[in-house]
Amino acid sequence: MSESKTTQYSGSGSGSGIGSESRNTSFDHSHEITDFHGHEEEDMGFPERQLTRTQSVIQRVQTKLSFFNEKLESERWMLVRRFFYIYLLMGSLMLSVFSIYWGSMYGRENRMKNLRMLVVIEDDETVNGIPPVIGDHVRQILQSPSARHMGNWLIQNTTEFEQKAAEHNNTIFQEIQRQIHHQNYWSSIYVKKNASSGLYNAIVTGDTSYNVSFNSIVSFYETGRDFMAMNQYVTPTVREIETMVTQSQSDVMSKLLQNANHSKVFSNPDAIKVASTGLDFTFIDARPYSDPVLVAPSQVGLIYTIIITFFAFNFFSDIHRQVSSMGVKVVDLMLYRVISTMITFFFMSLFYSLVTLAFQVDFTKAFGKSGFLVYWMTNFLTMWAVGAMNEAMGMMFILIYPPLMGFWMLFWVILNIAPTFTPLALSPKVYRYGYAMPIYNSYEITKVIFFDTYKGHMGRNYGILVVNVIIATILLLIMFKIFGQTMAKRARAERAKIEEECLQKNCKDRAASVDFEN
């Protein structure tokens, strides 16, 4: 019995030990399993899903197709259609926009006759038996078909022109200057009174001090009216007439000296010298172009004003967006937009004007010390007019098709410069729309500031600039309201779409979680 108990005890002890060990082993194993699953869930999520995801990625990599695979045929045709559409759109825009500028120059040589030229021939009477040979010769040349093709030579009736000069208390030459300055004519040819008899007397007497050119034919003009057009078209045209006169000078001299004593005249070296002097024109430029820097603010700089205002639209877009998100009233928001735009262009025009001042351009020719202020305010109105339009159209194209913004910029520049940098007299009549464009009127005012040209049109120029400012600002407000409403509507639609997608995704995630737990 005793042995049996001992064995049982031992067995019991042994069993107890085994049982305890077994329990410990079972606990440790269970703990290990728990730790394993906890580690997997923490680092890798659900293994089945991760495996599925890994397999799907591998499958996607393994199933990449060649671009020319037959399975992608529909996608290829879709790309071809999209490329074709974009080519067609860009080509159409390029043809239409560039044609505006090209068209302003087309057939210009056939419109040279539109250039009004003032011609006053006072040498139209016989004096002491000397016929008005020079006056008649110039008249004959100007009435020839070749000369009329080069310009519209408006030969004045001397008596009527004298009366017009008397009305303004002017001499003939002073009245010519007034007519040119008031931009009624591009240039002039003035054959002075008694030019033929004066030249005859100088030849006969051998008066070498006689200025044949100045006392015969004078051309008065103002380059400042349009320094590019004057140097490229107007002045060369008058010089062509001068060449025609000098080339036929032998005929003039033979008629002038037909009653003179040839042996006496040609025996005198001084007489020969005077007679052989060419009938060159004396050119008087009352508003010369003397500072090459003026090309920048007068022409190219005007293009930059349009471009820089477009930059402002991009620079301040984030600020405007931030203000819009502050919950400000619509009326206050629109007022903010107008005032901020005005202040922006006010300072931008100042910086632009300071560039011209830094290069020592003379602002005092027309308005004295106030010239810079006039220039600044002109640039301010110009930038406001073109810049507000840029902002309005920029918002419109963001709503329609953002890539069109670049073509709008190109169109707006060309629409303004096509009638500005080319005399409207040499362009087709359709380009007279330029009279209403902001850059054209700014250009006209700029010429007054830098060259002291005729001020009589400044009131009209400033009036048109102000009208452009008003129209552009109203359009800006309208587009701002439309833009805000449309973007808010799109934002709500996008938010609803995202919420719906999130809802669907959450439902799927929950369904997958339930499946995994089961």
How many DSSP helices? Answer: 20
Overall radius of gyration? 44 Å
Sheet-strand content, in percent, reads: under 5%
**Secondary-structure-derived class:** mainly alpha
Global shape:
elongated
Distance between the termini: 56 Å
Keywords: Membrane, Transmembrane, Transmembrane helix
Pfam family, one: DUF3533
InterPro entries: DUF3533, MNNG_permease-like
Organism: Clavispora lusitaniae
Task: Write structural notes for this entry.
The protein has about 525 residues and is mainly alpha-helical. The protein folds into 2 domains: about 110-285, abc type-2 transporter like fold, CATH 3.40.1710; about 290-500, no CATH class. Helix content is about 70%, strand content about 5%. Strands 2-1-3-4-5 form a 5-stranded mixed sheet. The longest helix has about 60 residues, at about 460-515. About 30% of the residues are buried. Mean pLDDT is about 85; it is low at about 1-45. This is Nitrosoguanidine resistance protein. One of its GO terms (cellular component) is membrane. It comes from Clavispora lusitaniae. Keywords: Membrane, Transmembrane, Transmembrane helix.
Top keywords for this entry?
membrane, elongated, mainly alpha, transmembrane helix, 5% strand, transmembrane, 69% helix, five-stranded mixed beta sheet
Write the layout of secondary structure elements.
Elements: H1 2-44, H2 47-62, H3 73-105, E1 116-121, H4 133-142, H5 145-148, E2 152-155, H6 158-167, H7 172-181, E3 187-191, H8 195-205, E4 217-221, H9 227-247, H10 249-256, H11 262-266, H12 269-275, E5 282-285, H13 295-315, H14 317-324, H15 330-358, H16 364-367, H17 371-400, H18 404-417, H19 438-451, H20 458-517
Parallel strand pairs: 1-2, 1-3, 4-5
Antiparallel strand pairs: 3-4
Transmembrane segments: 84-103, 293-316, 336-359, 371-389, 395-418, 462-483
Region (Disordered): 1-26
Protein name: Nitrosoguanidine resistance protein
